[in-house]
Amino acid sequence: MQSIKVGLIGFGTVGRGTWNVLRRNQQEITRRAGRGIEIAAIAERNAEMAREAVAGGAQVYADAAQVLARDDIDIVIELIGGYEPARSLVLAAIERGKHVVTANKALLARHGNEIFEAARARGVMVAFEAAVAGGIPIIKALREGLTANRIEWIAGIINGTSNFILSEMRAKGLPFDAVLAEAQRLGYAEADPSFDIEGIDAAHKLSLLSALGFGVPINFDAAHIEGISKLAPEDIRYAEQLGYRIKLLGITKRTAKGIELRVHPTLVPAQRLIANVEGAMNAVLVKGDAVGFTLYYGKGAGAEPTGSAVVADLVDVTRLHTADPENHVPHLAFQPDRMAAVPWLPIEDTVTSYYFRMRVADQPGVLADIARILADGGISIDALFQREPSEGENQTDIIMLTHDAVERDVDAAVKRIEQLPTVLAPVIRIRQEELG
After folding, report:
1. CATH 3.30.360.10 location in the chain
2. 4-135+303-338 fold
3. How many Å apart are CA 202 and CA 187, to the nearest integer?
4. How does pLDDT run along the chain (436 residues), one tens digit per residue?
């Protein structure tokens, strides 16, 4: 059978990884797909670099439109990232009847509903396993492997840069800025790391996981997003003393009032497997009603791990290339006409437990005043300790864990606590999840 021909747009790190994985494992991939898969055309602004890398193995163009114009190209891989021109190129490929494989989580988080509808109308597939958690097959797990389940919640470490920084802060006791500089030196963090450290990248990915898990349209704008740039080493140390680790988690839950969609630093019990995911690794924990807990772990970025996911999508599309479009697995796991109209829960209505760190004057009655305010707000204390002040020091830290409380009530209580003359700095608070 004739090989299926692929056009690759973008020959950066992931593009080269995809090329290398496909070439190296060509025989095995052909056995799995049932026919050969050939990258016949590449679009890359630095065309000379790409030509040198592929050494005549594919036609290289400087203009992506030339790849789309080729009638022999059946599948287009989009690996340039960002919103434009990626969106226009993907829609143009779909309009020409070409299947699309993409690793572009930002594009799908913002324009995925439009892109998937265009693909459905044209009878082509858009595959995006590489858009979330690199080489971990979490998209396939949610879309196919867990089909029998009613997904209850998903929680994931889905940004390797932030996880590396938090791991180093915990291991070495260093402040955030020092570890960020080291992450940039090692290549884990970009020169402008804001998408990673402020939680935006994780929120892009989480919006896709939420849609797949609950059968709702993608809604990135519903996400509550907090990053890790304000975390202090003492909070990581205190959490450890209480039996917790701090991780930047993406969490989406189905509740009676609506769907939660939030990214923020989170205290996780140290005995949980996901709490022990270190360095730049990713992990996603899924709770289904039938299967219970399943954990997916691996490299969330990098040339060949992400290239592995791209090639897996190529194999899937190749297998179904000639199939009736009505028999394709739906892009977002649920049939398009069966997507649910479920409200999104604002962060103020979220119920979770909390970690507080309060810098207070070392004098009698302080703890009683704080406990009274919390009790007035219906917030009960689960555990607390007070740091022993050094000799001659007239202030100290009170560390506190709460039972479950509504975020709105916590907001009000914290404002009252910060108005106490004996509370000397803004209250540090971090949400806590048992994940059990």
Report:
1. 138-299
2. Rossmann fold (3.40.50)
3. 18
4. 789 999 999 999 999 999 999 999 999 999 999 999 999 999 999 999 999 999 999 999 999 999 999 999 999 999 999 999 999 999 999 999 999 999 999 999 999 999 999 999 999 999 999 999 999 999 999 999 999 999 999 999 999 999 999 999 999 999 999 999 999 998 888 889 999 999 999 999 999 999 999 999 999 999 999 999 999 999 999 999 999 999 999 999 999 999 999 999 999 999 999 999 999 999 999 999 999 999 999 999 899 999 999 999 999 999 987 677 777 888 988 988 888 889 999 999 999 999 999 999 999 999 999 999 999 999 999 999 988 877 778 899 999 999 999 999 999 999 999 999 999 999 999 999 999 8
Give CA–CA dist 364/66, Å, rounded.
76
Q: Both tokens of residue 30?
A: 């052909």
Q: How far apart are the C-alpha atoms of 263 and 154, rounded to whole Å?
A: 12
**Would you state the CATH architecture of domain 138-299?**
2-Layer Sandwich (3.30)
14 is written with which tokens? 């992931």
The answer to whether domain 350-432 has CATH 3.30.160.40 is: no
CATH 3.30.70.260 domain extents, the chain: 350-432
The size of the chain, in residues, is: 436
Which residues are part of the catalytic machinery? 205
Alpha carbon distance 106, 121 (integer Å): 23
